[in-house]
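Checklist before submission:
- one chain only
- standard amino acids only
- sequence pasted in full

Submission:
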Amino acid sequence: MTFGEHIRTVREKRQREDCTFSLRMVASRTGVQPAYLNKVECERTAPPPERTIRRLASDLEEDADVLLALAGKVSQDLQQIVIRRPRLFADLLRELDEAPDDMLTRITREVRAGVS
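Returned file contents:
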């Protein structure tokens, strides 16, 4: 599913439950014009910048990193982490590319807990 399709699907689902999730109201809360949000949802324009994607994620109660990935973007904070140690993180990501999700989840938990 593309970024725009995902946004539209989530927004329309939320709208069925709560009328405040109309295209106009979501656009207003996220600081964009309704016509622009419609173009994004219909894939007639490129996904918005990170700041707007984060506002959409917050309003729609979606994960910002997932929306950024659907938009083909990486958050600024992650970019800065990679820029500080590019070779190390490039090697790590390439090695983990084919790892199963349960392994990645275990590694993440261990790193968070400070386990070596």
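Reviewer check: The chain has two domains: 3-73, 85-113.
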